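Minutes, methods subgroup
Present: GH (chair), OT, SY

1. OT presented the first of two proteins processed in the latest run. Sequence and structure tokens recorded below as shown on screen.
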Amino acid sequence: MRKAVIFLVAVLANVNLTFANASSSVELNSPSKKELFEQKSLEKDITSYIKIVENPDYSQHSMVELALFTQEIGFSFGELQKYEDALSWYDKTIEKFKDFTQVEIKEVVAGVMFNKALIYVRQNRYDDALCVLHELKDSYKNTHSEYLALHVSNANMAIAEIELMTDKPISKPNSKELLDEHKSLFEMLTILNMAKIKSQDKEIAQWKMRNQHLKYTDWTFDWIEDWAKANNYQSEKKERINKTLGVLLSHIEAR
């Protein structure tokens, strides 16, 4: 997923810590001062924003600001891993602002829909995530906004990843619904999907030749990496998947 535009990357990441000294694990697993400070800060933000959005002063705040504040409540709950509260506030944001025609508000709503899908993935609610992502791209696919186009392209990439992980046929989007920077990545996802069935050595070699200088600095494939480790495919299929995934990951910088 594209790290730069996904607000909940930190929330959705799987963090596994291994400690050499098991006897001190209780102390080490306790929240640090920094974590406690961040938690208190988020809780304070939530309280402040709820006061603003539930009793809005339109002389002080524009509708764009109110949309952002409402979104931020959901985001903060997500950071605290209170996912049902986050989903509730994301739904409130969507319901309240979905019919506004102002581009800046549409961008907020699209971002909220994307984050809502991310939480569903975190909860293994893949069909719900796909439903939201399809709604996002169908709502904004004809946009002239650069930021909305980015959300649509990201949604298509996320759909492909989820379909890959859940053994569904990968939906091929209209080429206009993918940014140029996403097209080579999408192609590799389709190759990775076919690796479940047969060797993709020829396709991989051709992809590498076309994309040998390609490097991505703002992408993560944590979902697929976790899926590749956890799936119960037979060893030959698993080997093909890992080989193909390794090629893709070699183009992700700062790993």
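2. SY then presented the second protein from the same run.
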Amino acid sequence: MHPYATGPQSPALSRVYHCETAHHETLLDVKQRLHALCAEHAYRLVQVETMDGDVYEGKIVLCDRSILFLQLSNEGHRAFLPGAPNPYFYNNVILPLVLFDLLAITLI
């Protein structure tokens, strides 16, 4: 039988992980609060820090489901490329960040 087969002859699936009810409720609460904060501060310049210590600056463009879309600020960043400088290079980079990986969002 094919390993991805479904139906009456497929073997029982063994669950490896199941989110506890208390954690599920906490995560839903965090998600709702972050959606409200992102909507309130949309298009404002912010600094976002992730759980891994990465820090990004940019404007909140959208918060959809569990993803924060951040239009990165190119202030202070340089790229050394051949040819004449392009003032539009990387001006519209949008970084998707997972809400549950965010540690802090700070208004700048």
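Chair's summary of item 2: Strands lie at 45-50, 55-64, 67-72, 94-98, 102-107.
Next meeting: continue with the remaining queue.
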